[in-house]
Design brief:
Length: 278
């Protein structure tokens, strides 16, 4: 969220004083909150993440792959995620959502191969998508793109969290410990994929965790379970199954990640992704 514009009557000197006071206040607040970095993590964090006894996060490497050509935009995944993870019902809170991309044909004589792109996601796609205002004969291509946390190897959110509430488990899943989170929103603003939100009830940060409470017990994420088109492929890169769908998917498709130029190292893979997807 952007900060409101500074009133014209506020002078630079006053603004600097205000920032100094704010910085001192935040420093005092953060000093009162125990930090994961100081604590060390390990098995203590495993218990806090509600992992079952016997689950060893060092023996797994979870990955999600998405086949854009198979996504039909039904958003059953969005509804299942909301229910499974008790996501607030308001249409502004999602752990996963669906975007519709509409690429226009290039204008006559433009010399371009593709025209402009329109992206929409009304209520995360949960209520369906209205007919496009662009005439069908002007559309070059239209498709749906599922979005969720990208499980970055170099996650900006973990680096931005001042108290260690956001952390990366050894199995590759980026988690949020609600007992540590102070609701400052730094992780939300640092995420370049817009995958986080502040829960209005708990006042703590939330995001997709691949249904961590399910996958650590041998189940699939709720979104994967309900996808009718098989657009979501989930698996353990450290222990692939015989005829593993994830390994097969990666072997047979040209997979890409969102915004690779940022150097965050996303672990969510996409196939069939046009260059307009962002």
């Amino acid at each position: 969220m952007k900060s409101p514009p500074t009133p014209a009557h506020v002078q630079p000197l006053n603004r600097r004083r205000w920032l100094a006071v704010l910085g001192s206040s935040l420093a005092g607040l953060f000093s009162l909150v125990p930090s994961r970095r100081a604590e060390g993590g390990g098995r203590e964090r495993q218990k806090e993440a509600a992992m079952p006894d016997g689950y060893d996060p060092t023996r797994h490497r979870w990955l999600m792959a998405l086949d854009i050509n198979r996504c039909i935009g039904c958003a059953l995944c969005v509804a299942a995620c909301k229910t499974e993870n008790k996501v607030p019902p308001e249409p502004t809170y999602f752990r996963t959502w669906i975007e519709r991309y509409i690429i226009r044909k290039p204008g006559p004589g433009s010399g371009e191969l593709r025209g402009s792109t329109i992206v929409d996601s009304p209520n995360g796609g949960r209520d369906g998508f209205p007919p496009s205002a662009i005439p069908r004969d002007q559309i070059l291509r239209s498709f749906f793109v599922p979005k969720l946390c990208n499980l970055c190897e170099q996650s900006p959110c973990t680096q931005a969290c001042p108290v260690g509430a956001t952390f990366q488990a050894p199995d590759g899943v980026v988690l949020v410990d609600p007992h540590y989170c102070i609701g400052c929103g730094f992780c939300i603003q640092s995420c370049p994929y817009g995958c986080r939100f502040l829960n209005p009830n708990t006042r703590t940060a939330e995001k997709c965790t691949l249904c961590y409470h399910r996958i650590t017990r041998g189940l699939k994420p709720a979104c994967v379970e309900v996808c009718p088109g098989g657009a979501r492929i989930f698996g353990d890169a450290m222990h692939p199954l015989p005829d593993d769908p994830l390994s097969e998917f990666v072997a047979k498709n040209k997979v890409q990640t969102l915004k690779p130029y940022l150097g965050t190292g996303p672990r969510v893979l996409y196939a069939g992704m046009d260059k307009e997807v962002r």
